Amino acid sequence: MKINREKLLQQFVQTEERIWAASLLDKVEKALTIHEFVLSDFFDPAQQEKAVSLLQQIDEITYLFSGGYPYAERKRMIILPSYYLAEVGDEGVAALAIEGNFKYCSVTHRDYLGALLSLGIKREKIGDILLTESGCQVLVDSQIKDYLRSNLTKVNRASVKVEEIDLDMLQFKPEKIKEIKTTVASLRLDAVTSSGFGVSRSKVVKEIAAELVKVNWKVVTNPSYQVKPEDVISLRGKGRVIIDQIKGETKKGRIGLILKRYI
Q1: Taking the mean position of all CA atoms in its chain, how far away is CA 254?
Q2: What would the pLDDT profile of 28-87 be if each residue is shown by its tens digit?
Q3: What is the pairing mode between strands 135-141 and 126-132?
Q4: CATH 3.40.50.1980 at 5-81, yes or no
């Protein structure tokens, strides 16, 4: 069964995005050819949105997402022919526990990710990383789990042990949502981030410059970047904020906002 690739790719202007979309369409064509489900790599939420928008234009295809646990941020897409009847679940996702003695060596999410990438693993093969008291739990493409068990021996300066665990052993906390009603002088990224996270604007500017702030899961280094409704702002180590509503100007000329902060 043929799909109109050129028409579907017209909506992607940037070369990198077009290559990504073309790769996704390759998987769609494979699913239609072999009459089975096909797995994507792990997508961040912005990529998930784009993938849904693309696949919704193809009647012969349906899809599910699998991240290993209910609150996963990074997920794999399960692409199925619309007539596919078999049941699918968390396909192609494995969980690994990475544990070590970190008493004299403080480690962060970035340290764990860096250790994984240093082994030649691509970011898209790695899902969420959940920090635990003794290390972390990481969701990965099941095809690389044995390689990681054999080759990941250190994180930062600490020796580690890697074991596969069942998905039902994952230690995750349900997200809490706090609604914030506030006003800002403008919709600049630094102003909205400051209000959403309760951090001074001068500190936010420094964190933006240090590439610690993302909008819709992409690093933005311009403090004056203009945000808009439904944008997701994330600040490393502090969670993320969604711009739920822009209420218009107050009598003092400030802009009213309703934000949702995920803690």
Answers
A1: 32
A2: 999 999 999 999 999 999 899 999 999 999 999 999 999 999 989 999 999 999 999 888
A3: antiparallel
A4: no
Q: Where in the chain is the domain with CATH 3.30.70.330?
A: 93-169
Q: Which amino acid is at 126?
A: I
The neighbour count for residue 121, using CB atoms within 10 Å, is: 19
CATH architecture of 177-262: Roll (3.10)
Instruction: Check: CB of residue 137 under 8 Å from CB of residue 86.
Output: no
Alpha-carbon separation of residue 31 from 7, 26, 55, 81, 195 (angstroms) = 19, 9, 12, 6, 46
* Span 108-122, pLDDT tens digits: 999 999 999 999 999
CA gap 135, 152 in Å, rounded: 13
pTM of the model: 0.80
Burial class (CB in 10 A: 0-12, 13-18, 19+), 6: exposed
Please give the torsion angle defined by the CA atoms of residues 42, 47, 50 and 56, in that order, rounded to the nearest 10 degrees. Answer: 20
CATH architecture of residue range(s) 93-169: 2-Layer Sandwich (3.30)
